[in-house]
Amino acid sequence: MKKTGVFIAALLIVVSLIFAGCSKKDKTVLETIKANGKIRVGTEGTYAPFTFHDKDGKLVGFDVEIAQEVAKKLGVTPEFIETKWDGMFAGLDAKRFDVVVNEVSIKEDRKVKYDFSDPYIVSRAVLIVQKDNQDIKKLTDLKGKKAGQSLTSNLSDIAKANGATIVQTDGFNQAIDLLTSKRIDATVNDGLSYLDLMKQKPDAPIKVVAETNDATPSAILINKGNKELVDAVNKALTDIKADGTYLKISQKYFGADVSK
Fold first, then answer.
1. d(CA 198, CA 12)
2. Partners of 77 in the beta sheet?
3. Is 62 in contact with 253 (CB distance < 8 Å)?
4. pLDDT in tens, 133-187
5. Residue 70 in contact with residue 233, Cβ under 8 Å?
6. Burial class of residue 195 (count of CB atoms within 10 Å of its CB; 0-12, 13-18, 19+)
7. CA–CA distance, 42 with 102 (Å, rounded to integer)
8. DSSP state of 68
């Protein structure tokens, strides 16, 4: 009887431990962010005016300020982790950061693997060539021409669809450098980035010869299965639009409301 009692007591302990283990719930990404007091943000740092370094080396830009304000609404501090564009998705897959804030376009193939916040900016792609170029006047003229593009961007897809030979670049700045040095013929890139560049360097020997018809919305990129984080980010975006913070940032970088 004593052995039976000991066995039953041991069995009850094992069962209680199993139930305790089953009832223990892993923290969600949002809970972990709040517990750590920081949100890790993947961004390029080389894509003006969205995410770049000013003359003092400080990380600044439209996307940087949006991320800072979203973090503030979540009650945490943003930790920016700079990564080349073509490594951005792999970094999110590896959980090096919690979100990506880098003007990531919403695309159907990306939605299969990732979640997006509500759009926070809308832009159009433009075709940029050297100022003295007379051969390329529309997107279809890219056939057989060298276009400098980030390989995984939707802008690269546009260039490819129009027959361009793709020359890989790390981002907008490198594409423009290759273009001005005549190592490529063109780049399909963001119209807002072009306007910002011309504001900074009005004598840059480049020009826009065509623009896409469709406006492309961009959003904050988040790994699949984190609904609580998506909802919290969406609420933060809604709040900064409602209180005028978004418009203030938008006017600062673009002189207009770029949310629609």
1. 74
2. 38
3. yes
4. 999 999 999 999 999 999 888 899 999 999 999 999 988 999 999 999 999 999 9
5. yes
6. middle
7. 8
8. H
Q: What does the pLDDT read at residue 23?
A: 44
pLDDT digits (tens, 9 = 90+) for 37-94: 999 999 999 988 999 999 999 999 999 999 999 999 999 999 999 999 889 999 999 9
Q: In angstroms, how far is the first alpha carbon of the chain from the final one?
A: 78
Q: Which of 1, 95, 4 is nearest to 42 (CA)?
A: 95
Q: pLDDT tens digits, residue range 201-224?
A: 899 999 999 998 878 899 999 999
As a whole number of Å, the CA-based R_g of the chain is 24
Nearest to 259 by CA among 247, 245, 243: 247
Burial of 2-24, coded b for 16+ CB within 10 Å and e otherwise, reads eeeeeeeeeeeeeeeeeeeeeee
Q: What DSSP line would sit under 88-150, residue for residue?
A: HHHHHHTTS-SEEEEEEE--HHHHHHEEE-S--EEE-EEEEEETT--S--SGGGGTT-EEEE-
* Chain mean position to CA 96: 14
User: 3-class DSSP state for residue 239?
Assistant: helix
Q: Taking the model in full, what pTM does it have? A: 0.72
Q: Which two tokens stand for residue 163?
A: 């027959």
Q: Measured between alpha carbons, how far is 216 from 63 in angstroms, rounded to an integer?
A: 16
Most confident of 1-15, 18-32, 148-162: 148-162
